[in-house]
Amino acid sequence: MADTLLISHHVSYIQKLGQSQDELAYHLTSHLRLNAIYWGLTAICIMGRPDALSREEMIAFVMDCWDDNAGFGAHPGHDGHLLSTLSAIQILIMQDALDKLDVNRVVSFILSLQQPSGVFAGDSWGEIDTRFLYCAVNALSLLGKLDLLDKEKTVGYIKRCRNFDGGFGSCVGAESHAGQVFPCVAALAILDRLDIVDYDTLGWWLCERQLPSGGLNGRPEKLEDVCYSFWVLSSLSILNKLTWIDADKLTKFILSAQDPEGGGIADRLGNMVDVFHTNFGIAGLVDLDPVYCMPAVLIEKMGLRKGWTALERRQITSK
Amino acid sequence: MHGVKRVHQSSEAIQARKLKEQAKITEYLALANDVLSRKTSEDWSLEAFRLTTRLLRTNPEFYTVWNYRRNICLQGIFPNSSPEAIYELICEDLVFTMNALKVHPKVYWIWNHRRWCLNHVPEGPNESDLQGWKKASWERELAVVEKILDADARNFHAWSYRRYVLASMPVSRTEESELAYTAKKIESNFSNFSAWHQRSKVYSSLCESGKLQFDQFKKQELELVRNAMYTDPDDQSVWIYHRWLMGAGDDSELLLQEITAIQELLDEQPDSKWCMECILHYKLLLLQKHSTIVDVKAVSEECQTLLKQLKAIDPYRRQRYDDLAAAVLRL
């Protein structure tokens, strides 16, 4: 079992993902392609290997995903959606290629999805979720267009999703879930409205996600999973309460979920790896901005960091 | 990917699998490309609709194809169909998505499609009962969601969907029946926090609408919680719900009563972290909100003792206990 972060393994795992056209699973996941590229690119950037994937090819692919009716789809020919639109913007920014983007059209697509309640729909079919609200706030902030957003209405919706345990759910009435706490808290951080958060209660709820294995779960009495390391850690980081869990034990848990042969990280020890868990596992270990989920140096350079600190680089780099 | 075991495969085995997959890939891509090009050319035919069925059966996460399927209905099929035919098609789609959910109970797009179906049930079957089909469909939907929750009582998609169904039904269910449902789920498994959460929401809505006062259900809820605490004192769910019952701690009598009751359990289970955590929390509330009626010095010392014990038995969260100890000193 590996006790260091196997950077070269993970980089080569991510490189191979784009060349797996001979695997059925590759084609069955085309609806997540743009998100997967964002996960892969973020991971190689924070591992210090931004050149491991071809920049030109990637930018061309992103632009091919543009849907003339609505933002970016996850793949050429797929319908536009807020999830893939945020990924596209994040990729273009990481590749310093924002000049390719018709900012006004993207912004009007994003703003068109805000509902009277303040939440955002993912597309014109109307599914609502606080994750989509976060995508909108994050994207508008990255594009420097937050002033066009009705902030009161947006914050009002998040406030109505707050539960007695301090956490937030996917919509009004829904159970607190670490994967929804992150988007709500991060959106509030971007909007300078962390006063909505009950720090002590939420900090308590979040730190109780750590289980004896060191891993974190997403809700009370559920199994631990590597992807929650980012959702919980980033939320704790925004609240300045990272010390409320045992970071060394979490590090060991994430490292144990690595595939020491093929590279990549799984949800937990001994399971199949994927790019989602690879990114969020590495994210829990190295220099990531906890609000935008992008390399900390980049967010710092763009002047977007406020009161929070980046997730620090832990002593696990392979020699 | 969640919960799929990694198996070591030799390079020969991988090659053999890839070879076997090749035919499937060719077939899948031909179908996907056919559907997407029909979508581009705005083919709203029944034939296109059937092709989306085939494709979604293989890949229910292909959201673009669900979107296309709905557009075929809205642009091509519904305008030329009788209400009976529309209702029949929607019923078939509900069966289709139910079968998909049995295999993929956590795919957002399937749940979304059901919402759309239910919102497009036409009026009918006749003038005297225009709401008939709608009522029947939403009633059936609640049964469907219960089946999914029987298979996985914590599926948060299903719980959210359940709240959506309850809010949308043409003939609303009473809040009492929802309380009975959550009680049933809790009694079959105390550790089901999703059910406790739902229960807190139902009570909150009853209180907000003025239909019920906290005092009317306090005793009964505390008894339910007491049972659960004694059954499994290590389970977080019940303790979190207990905190909800205690609210902001404005009722000092209730705080004192519950501290005594939990202390009895702690005496039986001297290592119970959650007993200590809750007693500590309620004592802190006493110090913060009722300092005139308690012996502040004694309670503060009790808090410090509890914090030391917690730090010893729960070292992962030691820094939180240290922070709380410092906060007690500042009170």
Automatic annotation (TrEMBL), chain A:
Enzymatic class: transferase
Protein name: Geranylgeranyl transferase type-2 subunit beta
Keywords of the record: Metal-binding, Prenyltransferase, Repeat, Transferase, Zinc
Organism listed in the record: Amanita muscaria (strain Koide BX008)
EC number(s) per entry: 2.5.1.60
Family named by the database record: Belongs to the protein prenyltransferase subunit beta family.
Required cofactor names: Zn(2+)
GO-annotated biological processes: protein localization to membrane
TrEMBL record, chain B:
GO cellular component: Rab-protein geranylgeranyltransferase complex
Name this protein carries in UniProt: Geranylgeranyl transferase type-2 subunit alpha
Stored Pfam families: PPTA
Similarity annotation: Belongs to the protein prenyltransferase subunit alpha family.
Reaction(s) catalysed (UniProt annotation): geranylgeranyl diphosphate + L-cysteinyl-[protein] = S-geranylgeranyl-L-cysteinyl-[protein] + diphosphate
GO BP: any one term: prenylation
EC number: 2.5.1.60
Keywords carried by this UniProt record: Prenyltransferase, Repeat, Transferase
Function: Catalyzes the transfer of a geranyl-geranyl moiety from geranyl-geranyl pyrophosphate to cysteines occuring in specific C-terminal amino acid sequences.
Xref: PROSITE patterns: PFTA
Listed InterPro entries: Prenyl_trans_a
GO MF: Rab geranylgeranyltransferase activity
Gene3D superfamilies in alphabetical order: Protein prenylyltransferase (1.25.40.120)
